[in-house]
Fold this sequence. Notes:
By secondary structure, this protein is mainly alpha-helical. Helices cover 65% and strands 0% of the residues.
Amino acid sequence: MRASRALIYVAAGLLSALFLFPLYTLILIAFQPPKYTLIPTYPPLVPKELTLANLVAALSGTAFIDPFLKSVETATLVGLITLALAIPARPRTSLPSSRRLRTRWRPTSA
């Protein structure tokens, strides 16, 4: 029993590392010098220097702001349209009143 639980934890740890490694690589590329974003090379696994130059370049100017605002506008409109269509389509079920919830359930005889 103990060995199977340990095996489950090891498998969960390996699976977590498998899914988190690409995220770690993206964060490394975001904070590395621009040579790792322009040239198709992977950054070293342990960073030697961290810089905000990539983030400043990405967030400055209209090349980021205009598409970002259009994405926010589209997401907001899609959410509102979804709510407008989903709320009237909800199932009309009768929920038990609070008085009926306080009483005990008794099976009816058939």
